[in-house]
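Encode chain A's predicted structure.
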Amino acid sequence: ILIYHTHSQEAFADSIPGNAQTGIMGVGEVLAEILRKQYGYNVMHHMGQYDVEKRDYAYSNSLPALEAILKENPSIEVVIDLHRDGLDGEKLVTQIDGKQVAKIMFFNGLSRTARNGNVDYLPNPYIEENLAFSFQLQIKAQEYYPGFTRHIYLQSLRYNLHLKPRALLIEAGSQLNT
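Encoded structure for chain A:
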């Protein structure tokens, strides 16, 4: 499993400016440790920062590094781009086992617009596989932790989800969560 952050600078209500471990990158490190220690997965957490200068180019800026990581580590089967959502006035919280936790949302890029059809300059051979993976995870999450996931969000571009058949973009909470 590869975990990375296209938008590494995403922070939460209690994040400390300049301390990556208190923002989404810190959440990525906690997730990596849980997957390693509790579940025995081999996890790489890539801490590259691609949105420091220009956030708009973060996906294209991160792509060469991701391609190199995947080439050097062909056993990687799952790629997770971990984000936090930015919503006006909405703190995304639910209760699981008596604890308040941030809700998550699976985000899928379709490389297709309703108006113009396929986005030919952003091919993604794994759209169906990525959607199926998101749906499977959504169903399991609902089974084990009702209310933990939000809806699956579909968008027109590809968001580097063309790298693997099990590529995910996950939004964890919002800027108002702690």
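The two ends are 25 Å apart (CA to CA).
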